[in-house]
Amino acid sequence: MNHQDIPPKPASPPQTGSVPKVQGGTGPAPAPESITWSQPRHDPAPEKHVNRKPALWKALLVVVILAVAGSLVWLAVWLNSSPGSEAAKNDPLGVLQTAVTPPATPEPLPREGVAPAAYAVGECFKDFDPQALTSTVVPCDTGHSAQLVATLHYPDSAKYPGAEPLKAKALEVCQAAKLGPAAKQFPLNYQRSFPSSTSWGSGDRRVDCYVAADTGNVINASVLP
Known about the structure:
Number of helices: 3
Number of strands: 8
Oligomer: single chain
Structural class: alpha+beta
């Protein structure tokens, strides 16, 4: 082939009439006039800035919800830790009880020969001896010498901690007791009771705190709130 027969290349690519160029634009060109639109064609709207207000409102709403939830959690914790809010509270070593829990079926009083393992917070005792194997439970509005005001139950799996730690724990139990106005009407003191190594081996896990009168059965009201 004679190279002279090849026509010279044009100085620039030939333009087609199908897709006109848009001067100064980088996006696709508008459709040619020959295309029929399904809806009236409008001129391109001027560019608008993105409205970020809805996103800001959503973020603010999330922050408010989290703050309210945190406040409710804090309030629940505060209520649970308030004095007298619960009959029993969890102790790292057991369950502390400082409020009266009425039995489902109250037994008639007085009751004689009640063993210490059956003592309940709020019960009052006539001629009380913390070392006795049994006691007499009487109504608290009758003459008595002691009332059980707090108790701590160690778990069955706990190891014997020793006499001195138990004595210290019994003092903490007495300090946690909540007393009512009637406690100021009588000359009272605290008496503590805790397991020996022998009774611990037999399953005794109670640390008890009593409010007692040294002068006999002179108390005639409950000292609990």
